[in-house]
Amino acid sequence: MKRIYLDHAATTPVDKRVLKAMLPYFTRKYGNPMSLHSFGQEAQKAVEEARIKVADFFNCSPGEIFFTSGATESNNWVIKGVVRAHQSKKPHIITSAIEHHCILEACESVEKDGLAEVTYLKPDPRGIIFSESVRKAIKNNTVLVSVMYVNNEIGTREPIEEIGEVLEGRILFHTDATQAVSHFNCDVKKLGVDFLSMSGHKIYGPKGVGILYIKKGSLIFRIQEGGAQEGEMRAGTHNVPGIVGLAKAVELIKKDKKILQLRNYLISRVLKEVPLSRLNGSLDKRSPNNANFTFNNIEGESLVMLLDGEGIASSTGSACSSRSLEPSHVLSAIGLRPEEAHGSLRLTLGKDTTKKDIDFTVEKIKKAVAKLREISGNVLEEYEQLH
Amino acid sequence: MFWKSMNNYTKRTLNQFLKPKNRGKINNPDGVGMVGNPVCGDLMKVYIKVGKNKKREEMIKDIKFETLGCVAAVASSSITTELAKNKTLKQASKITKDEIVKGLGGLPREKVHCSILANQALKKAIDDYYSKLPASSAASAKSSARASAKTASAAGRKRGRSYAGKAF
After folding, report:
1. Across all residues in chain B, what is the average pLDDT?
2. N or C terminus: which one in chain A shows less Cβ crowding within 10 Å?
3. Residue B51: helix, strand or coil by DSSP?
4. Over the stretch A74-121, which tens digit does the pLDDT of each residue have?
C-alpha cells in the first residue's frame, strides 16, 4: 500500500543530504569535542562549523547559539533558567494559553515551586496573541515574555515582531520557533527576540538535537550541570552527528510557494466537499503547511485510524488520542466546544507532498467522515435536546 | 493533545471498529439506553427489541447501537451488542466489562472506560424496557439488571476516573 505522510508538524524524514553529512561522525570521526587529541579536535571543528552555519541562518554570532537535545529542552531551559537568574524578587512571566506543553508545564512547575508567577494570555478565535494584550499584562516584576512563533496545532503565526517592538528590549523575550523555521523569516534581530528555540527533526534533520539562541548579555542560568560544554552553559557530551545534521538541515531550508498552493487546494476542497466541515485557526496568518479541520458528529481518533487504514498519516486534537482524556488545550482556548475539538483533524504537508496525494486524501476523508457519521447517527443532537 | 496510545489496539478491536456489527437504530424499540458525555468525547446509544425464547423467557431478539466516539468506543459498542444478542435479559444483565474487554482481546488501560460505557448503555436499555412494563411483572428481573449496572459504575470509580458522571 502506498503511504502518504501528512503529519510533518509531528516530525519529518531526514533529508538524504543531511544523513550523508552526519554519517562520518558515527564511525570514523567519533571523537568527543572536549578531548585534547586529534579525534577530539576533528569533532570540535565539526561542531564549531555547524555553529557558524546555524548562526548565519538566524543572523546572530556563533557564540549565541547553544546546542541542546531539542526544543523541549531549550524551552525548559529558558523558563527555568531565567526564573532562577531573577530570584531577588519573585519574577513574573507572560506566556500564552496555546504554547506547546513543554512551555506550559515548565511554567506550571516554577509556579508550583513558588519561584515565579505566570500570566497565560488568551488568544482571539483565530489563535492570535495580540501585542496589545502582552503590553497590558506587563507588571513591575515581569522578567520574561514567551510566545511561540507558529502554533503547532492550528498553524497560526503570531506577531512576534510586533511583540518585540512593544517590549523594546526592556523585558527578555523568547519565541519557540520550532514550527516556523522552515517557513518564516527567523532573523533574531528582525524579530527582536532574546531567546529562540528550535528542533532539528521538524526541518528534515535528525531527532534529539535542537538549539537555544541566547542573545549576548541576557541574564539566564544553566539548568543542567556536569560539564563545561557550550561555554559552561549546557553540560553533556555534544551530539556531534546530530549537530552536524541540524546545521545541514538549516542550510538546506528553501522556501517555495508550492506547499502553500497545495495546502490552499486541500482546504478549499475539504470545505467544499465534506459537509459540516470548518477550518480551525486563521486563513491568512497561518503556516503554509498546516490545515486543521473540525467535522461535526465524528471523533478524531476514529478518523485518524480510518485514514491510517488507507495509508494516510494525520493527527487530531481529540482527547481520545491522548492519555489525558481532555481535548486539545489550543482548540479549547480558541473557543471550540469539546465535541468540536474532539472532531478535529490536523494535516501538515511536507516538501514532497504532491497534488495526487492531496486528491487521494480528500477522497478518503470524504468516505471516512461519511462512514463515521453512519455509525454515530444523531446521538449528539439527541443528547443536546435532552440537556 | 496530539497526540499517543492509539497504536496499542488489538487486531480484534480494530476489526470490530472497521466492520462494526449491529450498527444503526431500531424503529419502535422496546428499550433504549444512552450514556456518555460530549465533553469526554463518547456518546453511545443502544436499542433493543425483546422477544421470548422456547422457555418463554424474555430475550434480546434484536440489538443495535449508534456511537459517537473513538476506536475503543465503537469497538466496545459492537462487541457488546454481539455478546447480548439472543441472550435472555437475565443473561445480558450479567455481562461484565471484563467480558467486553476480553472479547476485544484487551484494551489499552486508558480506554477501559469505553467498555464500561458500552456495558452501561446495554443495562440502561434493559432497564428502560422493564420501566415500561406493568409494575408487577417487572419487579423481580428489574432488580437484577440494576445490580449489574451498579457493579459497572463501581468498577469505573475504582479506576480513578469519573465515569459515573458520564452516565445520565
Report:
1. 83
2. N
3. strand
4. 999 999 999 999 999 999 999 999 999 999 999 999 999 999 999 999
In a domain, B159, yes or no: no
Q: What is the pTM assigned to this prediction?
A: 0.91
How far is A375 from chain B, CA to nearest CA, in Å?
Answer: 6
- A150: β partners: A157
- What pLDDT digit, counting tens, does each position of A36-63 carry? 999 999 999 999 999 999 999 999 999 9
List the 40-69 stretch of B: residues with Cβ below 8 A of A.
40-45, 66-69
Tell me whether residue B17 is in a domain.
yes
Q: Which domains does chain A have, with CATH numbers?
A: 16-251 (3.40.640.10), 256-386 (3.90.1150.10)
Q: Closest residue of B to A320, CA-based?
A: B70
CA gap A283, B11 in Å, rounded: 39
Q: What ipTM was reported for this prediction?
A: 0.89
Q: In CATH, what number is assigned to the domain containing residue B34?
A: 3.90.1010.10
Q: Give strand pairing partners of A345.
A: A293
Please tell me the total count of domains within chain B: 1
Inform me whether the pLDDT recorded for A162 exceeds 60: yes
- B:97-126 residues touching chain A, CB 8 A cutoff: 110
- Give the integer Cα–Cα distance in Å for A93 and A218: 15
Q: Which of B48, B95, B114, B121 is catalytic?
A: B114
d(CA B112, CA A157): 38
Structure letter (DSSP) for residue B166: G
Whether residue B92 lies inside any domain: the answer is: yes
Give a yes or no: residue B1 inside a domain: no
Q: Decide if B4 and A329 are in contact by the 8 Å CB cutoff.
A: no
